[in-house]
Amino acid sequence: MTLDCSFSQKINRPQPRLSFSGIFQIVFGIIFFSMFSFNTTANAAALSSVNIKSNLDPNAITITEIDVVFLYDQALIEDFPTSKSSWYSMRRTLTQAWGDSMDVVSVFVPQGFDFNTAVLPERKLDAVKVYVFGQHDEAAAIPIDVTDLSAILVTIDDLGIIVTSPE
Question: Could you tell me the pTM of the whole model?
Fold first, then answer.
């Protein structure tokens, strides 16, 4: 048996040496990269339960709509409507334009009745923002940010909606 001499020859190149600052830069780079690349749950929503209750007169013939909006793209937050009137006037356009980047759960609640738990989208915990709007609110009412809450109770009363959390 003979050996191939190209594999048995020693390579006479200088070997690189890492200094303390080089090691520090590598470790710092890995930590910095992991903070931005692997931390996908830092902005993720916590909302998993929405209960709705109406304190209005059950004899009145009115139905109030509550919208729970899940945004899955950080870039959409800047363009999201800042009032109830702009949300309800732009809702159809936004749902068509933003497609899979947004889910809207609309619940229609007759006055004086409770609606147990709204059915939320399967990917609800992937949302970067979750907002609540109530059609019964005043036109200038701003969206209520419930992203960091795991459970909410939306109460409809004479003045609009009130969102509370047991947390």
Answer: 0.71
